[in-house]
Amino acid sequence: MFSKETYIARRKKLASSVESGILVFLGNNESPCNYRDNTYIFRQDSTFLYYFGLDLPHLAAAIDIDSGGEIIFGDDVDIDDIIWMGPQKSIADQAAEVGVGKTYPFARLNSFVADALAKGRTVHYIPQYRADNMILLANILGTQPAAVNKEASVEFIKAIVAQRIIKEPCEIAEIDRACDLGYAMHYTSMTIMKPGMIEQEVVGAMEGVVISGGYMTSFPTILSQHGETLHNHLHDKVLEVGKLCVIDAGAEIASHYCSDFTRTLPVGGKFDSRQKDIYTIVSTANSFAAEMARPGITYREVHLAASRLMLQGLKNVGLVKGDIDEALALGVQGLFMPHGLGHNMGLDVHDMENLGENYVGYDPGQERAKQLGLGSLRMARKLVPGHVITDEPGIYFIPALIEQWKADGKFTDFVNYSALEGYYDFGGIRLEDDILITASGCRRLGQKRLPITVEDVEEAMAS
Ligand code: GLY
Ligand code: MN
Predict the structure, then answer these.
(1) Ion ligand 2, residue ranges at CB < 5 A
(2) Are residues 317 and 369 in the same domain?
């Protein structure tokens, strides 16, 4: 938790960005896994954490823009809870720690909102992603759960995004820590991976680092020798010499700030020459994007420049042909990288995605493209100091996609389909660092950069 003053200042700034009415914040509840008392690990809602700091279930809060009043809704524990959970601080004491002087029992949220609505006041809330909170809001608002998100407040969403997207120094320090833990997590994979192990053994060792040193993984670990499947969560294969293993994994520390790194390792510790060629294209694109990322340029432009560089690299190895600028404009790169260059990161690994990807990643007036790849770009905005984003180019050989484009006769002037047939067993490569936009450029987050060159990865794997 940050200082009380941090939360007070954040709420004051937020309240000054919304015209009038009441802002309602719902915290998260325990989420049952297979029966009520066997729950998934608790994760507080990130917006609630950002403004109210309290990291426990069954809380809500409200800010009255017009009167300046702030309330936290929650229930003190009773003796039954104390038996199972031990003594707990009162809600009032906890609220005081984040600068909120007024608390009500949770059940008063309903009449509080109903009262505001009866007075014709605007009740602002953000889109909900958990069914229990959708049902709660639907009951309070007298609507259906499925209708709740349609009425979410765009003014509220935009005010939160504008504030949370620029990381404060205290947040950057936490993200640096999350990246240090992410580094330790990934470095472990480089030193323990051996042919004959099951992929899951590496996953377990990596996640052990995070659970011992932080809170949990920042998203389900992706570790696969089928890296051409972008988010492959199957870890059941035996590691085989000569294959590439994509490892996309991150750490979430106790303050809930995240990291998100990807490295692609050669099982057996040595890249072959074909792997080296493609790997070097991706690692060059990763570094090139970081060199370009600076205030004033859009991340869309960086995505396109990195894509152009990779198309040129693929042309050099004979997989792409023709004019590179024409290929780029047509979207040929989507065949090889059907995702965007990066996304915002902070309290969420895809920061604030629950508020709407376009509100978070696109400036007003910026259109989201329809092309494969560019259309998946989650962060396209003009960069400003304080943005924290990922830099994660990749090249993948997805046989089904290549076959489909070939059958459709797509971009035959630019794609060397016959040469690509030799790559159907290649898999994929993705290389991801986390960067902070500074006044003059960007810096990589975390104290040390994970090995990324062919030589450094091979050396780390030999150690
Ligand atoms: N690291 C997973 C993702 O960015 O989607
Ligand atoms: Mn990522």
Answers:
(1) 260, 390
(2) yes
Q: Which of 230, 258, 260 to mutate to test the pocket of ligand 1 (most atoms within 8 A of CB)?
A: 260
351-382 confidence digits (pLDDT tens) = 999 999 999 999 999 999 999 999 999 999 99
Q: Is 417 in the pocket of ligand 1 (CB under 6 A)?
A: no
| pLDDT, position 233 | 87
The model's pLDDT over 72-101, given as tens digits with 9 standing for 90+, comes to 999 999 999 999 999 999 999 999 999 999
> Cα dihedral angle (300, 303, 306, 308), rounded to 10 degrees?
-70
448 C-alpha to ligand 2 centroid (Å): 18
Q: Which ligand 1 atom is at minimum distance from the Cα of 262?
A: 1
Is the same domain home to 174 and 39? Answer: no
The total of structural domains in the chain comes to: 2
Centroid of ligand 2 to alpha carbon of 248 (angstroms): 8
Helix ranges restricted to H, 293-347: 299-316, 324-330
Residue 424 CB less than 6 A away from ligand 1: no
Interatomic CA distance for residues 301 and 288, integer angstroms? 12
**C-beta of 180 in contact with ligand 1 (< 6 A):** no
- Are 277 and 419 part of one and the same domain? yes
Rounded distance between C-alpha atoms, residue 178 and residue 201, angstroms = 23
Residue 153 and residue 175 in one domain: no
Average pLDDT, the chain: 98
Is it the case that residue 421 has pLDDT exceeding 90? yes
Do residues 223 and 110 both lie within one domain?
no
Domain boundary among 137, 164, 191: 164
Domain that holds residue 448: 169-462
* Residue that terminates a domain, selected from 164, 185, 207: 164
Instruction: Give the percent of the chain with pLDDT over 90.
Output: 99
Q: Are residues 38 and 159 in the same domain?
A: yes
Q: Which residue do the tokens 């493209």 mark?
A: 369
CATH number of the domain to which 146 belongs: 3.40.350.10
- Statement: residue 182 has pLDDT above 90: yes
Same domain, 123 and 213: no
Inter-residue contact 235 to 223 (CB < 8 Å):
yes
Mean pLDDT of 260-266: 98
Measured in Å, residue 182 CA sits from the centre of ligand 2 at 12
Distance 344 CA to ligand 2 centre (A): 9
Q: Are residues 281 and 294 in the same domain?
A: yes
Burial (0-12, 13-18, 19+ Cβ within 10 Å), 219: middle
**Which residue is closest in CA terms to ligand 1's atom 2?**
248
